């Protein structure tokens, strides 16, 4: 049995990810892959995964992709995001593949979401990198 490689995030794992079942399974230079299993608790009234859950997965994947190239001690904040839903999700594993498009203080990224190899959503997100400001 293959041992799963542990991925060390440069920020604390958000508690919200546990609620959604989000897990980071890949992270390298400007790229991240996250998964979220289908679960009834993530659905809207028609048994389809709620768009907000997919949006959160996309946003999280973009943050991890960006975190892979940012200096420690910086904060990453979403300043804008758009998503197009291409197909419904009502079973199986959901994968988000994110990559940053340009480095800088303001960083655009693109995220593709797949459900059992079917492309189900496309998102574009913009982040800003801030110094770790103390209250």
Structure write-up:
There is one protein chain. This protein is an alpha+beta fold. It has a single domain (20-131), classed as Thiol Ester Dehydrase, Chain A, CATH 3.10.129. It is built from two helices and six strands. Strands 1-2-4-5-6-3 form a six-stranded antiparallel β-sheet. The longest helix has 17 residues, at 51-67. It is globular.
For the record, what is the CATH homologous superfamily label?
A: Hotdog Thioesterase
- Rg, rounded, reads 15 Å
Identify low-pLDDT runs: none
Tally of distinct domains: 1
- 3D shape: globular
- The portion of residues assigned to helices is 10-25%
Count every helix, treating DSSP H or I runs of 4 or more residues as helices: 2
Name the helix and strand elements from N-terminus to C-terminus, one letter apiece. Answer: HEEHEEEE
Instruction: Enumerate the strands of the largest sheet in spatial order, edge to edge or round the barrel.
Output: 1-2-4-5-6-3
Q: What percentage of amino acids are in beta strands? A: 35-45%
Mean pLDDT: 92
CATH topology: Thiol Ester Dehydrase, Chain A
Q: Class, according to the CATH hierarchy?
A: Alpha Beta
What are the SSEs and their pairings?
Layout: H1 15-20, E1 23-28, E2 31-37, H2 51-67, E3 74-85, E4 93-100, E5 106-115, E6 118-131
Antiparallel strand pairs: 1-2, 2-4, 3-6, 4-5, 5-6
